[in-house]
Amino acid sequence: MPRLSMIVPFQRDELALEETLLSALESRTGDDELIIVHAGDFSDPYQLDGDEAIVLEANPTDSLAEQLNQAVATACSPTVQILLPGTVVQRGWADEALEVFQDRSIEIVSLPIQDANSGDTTFGLKADEIPHRRMARGTEQCGAPILAGTMMRRRTLIKIGGWCESIPSELLDVELAILCNLLDIPCVALDQPRLTATKRTLVHPNTSFEVGKGCGMLACAYGEIPHSGVEVEPLVKRLGHLATGLMNPKLAAERLGWVLGVRDRSWVHRLTARVESARESMSETLQSIPMPSSSRSERRAA
Fold it and tell me: What's the Cα-to-Cα distance from 23 to each of 118, 195, 197, rounded to whole Å?
């Protein structure tokens, strides 16, 4: 059984893909599995399929989330990691994270990623600003990993339904962060970067308005689910935030998108159903775990 399944989705940037594959092939151990997933647009010019990697072809219309979920279902290791094209790993990059997973209570490890140009390090999503997509600049701020570099137990990811297939790809990590927080799935953030990437890899090309609106729609949907940790601010306060951002065009566009997004209920039903399914699946898992004899006797006594 592989110690780690690395999943690399091809996203039409061959140079970025080659950079990631080269670093992974050079740095992995013999016990690491490499899965390249694509939507029919990767020709495997280096003939990696077979001995070096698993090349998995999805449907041409499949979203990034659908491709990732298919790859997770194919993976053989108990632990999976997403390496977006353009991410470069160092030798031994996974050792510390896999050591953390020896604690069976830990389900997710956020690996910090250093910007190859500026040297700045992203530790994950900033905990106190989710569902806004803000980057944590230290382990103490991190509440969840970003998609690039995400390392998670495969069985848990499958049980909660994987990444949400009905939302834009730039929100996959934000939505998963809210869901895992709601389900009390713990995450540990490491403090030393072992991965590098350019800003192009970490920031989705969608406009600030689209990202802001999507985050607002997530807030609208999860704000109606008890214990989600998401609260939607009153309209007056949101408009006040919008006014304070008018000097910065990108920030103003994001805030305008947010104001419109929190009024859009089109994701409420699907995300509520997703949460209910994940809760039921996780509950079945807990019920299947044998209870220690002392605990069983205490319950009978009660």
Answer: 20, 10, 12
